[in-house]
Design brief:
Length: 100
């Protein structure tokens, strides 16, 4: 959406604000889910920290390779994935509604 409306400054600021809010809300939600069960809490947090550390270390290299070699392919894959997830979410949302 931000790419499509890149010349419209209001949409850009709105999208940036939504992105910032979502970035601020995700880590507390993940930590809440990880620490929900006290017996598994330490193992879950350790695994989460391991995954975050590995992703932080490998992301710059992987991102550079993806940008340099697979830009159009990844964009097409992203569009198809977003469409498929939207269709699936719509189906799951409305599948149990009684028909009148």
């Amino acid at each position: 959406m931000l790419f499509y409306f890149q010349k419209n400054l209001i949409v850009f600021y709105g999208g940036s604000i939504l992105f910032g809010v979502s970035i601020g809300l995700v880590p507390p939600a993940i930590l809440t889910l990880l620490t929900r069960e006290a017996s598994e809490s330490k193992k879950n947090i350790s695994m989460y920290n391991l995954i975050i550390a590995f992703a932080s270390a490998s992301a710059p290299f992987v991102g550079e390779v993806m940008y340099k070699d697979f830009t159009k392919t990844l964009f097409g894959f992203w569009i198809c994935s977003a469409f498929a997830m939207s269709v699936l979410a719509t189906y799951l949302l409305f599948k149990d509604k009684p028909k009148k």
